[in-house]
Amino acid sequence: MSFKYDAFQEEAIKIIKKEESVFVSAPTGAGKTAIAEYAIEMAMSRNEGVIYTSPIKALSNQKFRDFTHKYENEVGILTGDVSINPKGSLLIMTTEIFRNTLFENPKRFENISWVIFDEIHYLDDPERGTVWEEAIMFTPKHINFLCLSATIPNVDELASWIREVHERPVEVIIEEHRPVKLHHIFQCQNKFFEDMPRLKKQGYENREDWRLSMRDRYKRNRIDRPKAKANRIETLVETLKAEEKLPCIYFTFGRKRCESLALELSNYNFLSDDERSKVLDLFNSLLQKYNLSEERSALWMVTMIERGVAFHHAGMLPTLKEVIEVLFTSKLIKLIFTTETFAIGINMPARTVVFDCLRKYHGTHFGPLKTRDFYQMAGRAGRRGMDKEGFVYTRVNPHEIDHEEVKRIIFRENESVRSQFNTGYATVLNLYEIFGERLLEIYPKSFHAYQSSKRNKRLALELMQSKISLLKDMGYIEKNKISEKGKFASRLYGYELLLGEMQGDGHLDAINPLELCVILAALVYEPRKNDEMPDLHKRFRNVENLATSCNKHVYKKERKFEIHPFTKPAFFHLTEYVEAWYQNHSFEKVMKNATVAEGELVRCFRMIVQLLRQLIHAPNVSDHLKDKAIKAMSRMNRDVVDAEKQLKV
């Protein structure tokens, strides 16, 4: 061991040595990963297996690379679109794949002694939190838990629930101290303030709230209205450079703003001649390694990269994102503009973190950041072993956010984790196959039941009963058993009803491989705000009509049984891109007149590949449909879409 464990790490390791479950809550950057590594080494020294789950594929990929360097052929990864060494002693999985495998093939985990839930506070994610809850509930009794979380106030409640569900001890370790202290600085009115009172007095000029209602805007004379000076980014960057506070991660909440800020700041030069030569050599070698040497979006970044500037967001090609991550860890990128996904688990520390603002779009509305999300990002400031303190700059516009809201976001206690339990149809089918009519007895074991009032418990049970009734009404459950149609749908999480109806009516067998890809693309695609549906070529009107007909049928049943939210409809926005890619066009040609971002398109294509894999292995699939899915996968899973190829480079 090349470093000394902190007290909280030593305490956790003592518990792991006793082979007891442990829940560790600590700030980002405190060193939770070292505890996971100890559990892995202990298990593998005994020829026992370990599951490492993570909330996102990017983090799974990073963990696979990190652990492969250490354990070589002992590591495998399963993320839906990637399956490498699935019999490895250490299996990296997204939480969805772990949950699915618990239902589909629990015997696979007979030799597993530990499951590591990284970033377990994701249990309260509105879209995916229920997956974490289900995975915890159905983990076999012989497997110990190592739960790793950001600082949350109700860690004892979560651990107490796990104790109750699994009837086992679960020790709790809470570490509030951060090895590298965070120093907060505010940029307001183009000046810098190091505490909230000065920000209030000088930045806000002792006014509580500068924001005006529409009525006030008409009533007040412009002369009477306070007007803040703009926060100039040049002022900020010059300060960071002069005070040697680079490298810096600059968080902003829009892809276009990431790019425009990086382009604007590429006028600065943050590198010496020697560093410039090194970063260009590394960049060019990485482009060649990932077959990106002719990629326009990569070549466009050269003028930024050679000056030590870059950007990173979900709209980029996954391989190009990985290139940028390697450059950043090489310490040759001094200023990176990125969205919040850069903060999730990926180990990319810097000396300074900057927040462009403290409000973001939450899917349906604009609102303030959660305190927990703020510190997930702020926690990247300060490199352990290199910095005595990390610097967090928050850019504040008094017209957009009042002083008290700034104070609440940064200085209040982190939000508690709240259950988002909402079992999907595929999960209901899998549980019904195990428990039959006793399925409703499962709900009281959920974290949702543990946290909820009597009224909310009753509503949750009613919703689950409604889903069972719908599945019976639609023929997925017959005579208190899962039907052949139900067994098929039980393997298609998130898309079970629409694909189940198409399969049951024989439509999936009747369409050709391209049409199958078009339908799957329509199921996985989520249009962004103001996305317009392009004109659909007449040759695809038939599959659109099939999907629309199935949608209407499912909606009718969900309305009948009062099930909300409704199943997501099919959106055919990507049809022309799917067709071009299927016809073996280059990615550059596919993107020539595209209105969708590169990374978004690759992500959707990879989800198609994932669904095709599920179709191939789903029960009660005809050989004809399997052959079509295999052919479709060979056409879709190539070049930049091939996630396994990216990991094997």
What does this 3D model show about the protein?
By secondary structure, the chain is α/β, with parallel strands linked by helices. It folds into 4 domains: 168 residues, 3-Layer(aba) Sandwich (Rossmann fold), CATH 3.40.50; 231 residues, P-loop containing nucleotide triphosphate hydrolases (Rossmann fold); 70 residues, no CATH class; 157 residues, Sec63 N-terminal domain-like fold. The chain contains 29 helices and 19 strands. Helix 4 packs across helix 5, helix 23 packs across helix 25 and helix 23 packs across helix 27. The longest helix is centred in the last third of the chain and has 20 residues. The chain is globular and about 75 Å long. The mean pLDDT is 92.
How many angstroms does the end-to-end distance come to?
A: 29 Å
- Tell me the major beta sheet: 8 strands, mixed
| Rg over C-alpha atoms, rounded to the nearest angstrom | 26 Å
Supply the helix-strand structural class: alpha/beta
Number of domains: 4
The overall pLDDT, averaged over residues, is 92
Proportion of β residues? Answer: 5-15%
For the largest sheet, list the strands in their spatial order.
4-3-5-2-6-7-1-8
Report the total helices: 29
CATH class of the largest domain: Alpha Beta
CATH architectural grouping of the largest domain: 3-Layer(aba) Sandwich
Q: Which stretches are low in confidence, meaning pLDDT under 50 for 5 or more residues running? A: none
